[in-house]
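Quick start: read one record
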Amino acid sequence: IAAPYRFVYSKSNASNNDLRKMIAKAIPISVAQSKQFSKRFKGKTDRQTAKNIYNFLKSLKYIKYGENQKIKTIRVLVKDGSGDCKSYTVATSAILKNLGIPHYIVYTSYNKADATPSHVYVQLKDGTIIDAVYKAFNKEAPYAYKFRKSV
């Protein structure tokens, strides 16, 4: 994977808005870093490609960051072998963009009293879900609020 080896973002007590902005900034950096790398995930269908990405992410170590939030570019995620939902989302979106597969970034909240997103993952335009934090491919945890953003 080419391009600079670096974290895109690391901040204590980052606001939800800060995190969403930094995910958006990290994706094009990761696209540039992963043009060749992305090709290994191409399946016969978009759903198979999504499953390949999901399986790859499941092979990494999931880390839930506390106060100090980190968003890793795809190069850092692969090198470290670990990340959280934000870094998984950046990597997934970058791979899909490199393969020309339309998708959304999905922000969810699981708190009925607060719509502020607490989780992020990717959904293909055909509805296929890529959330490697969840226990199964093409499934999502029951949510209170869900917002989709085109990329």
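Residues 1 and 36 are 7 Å apart (CA to CA).
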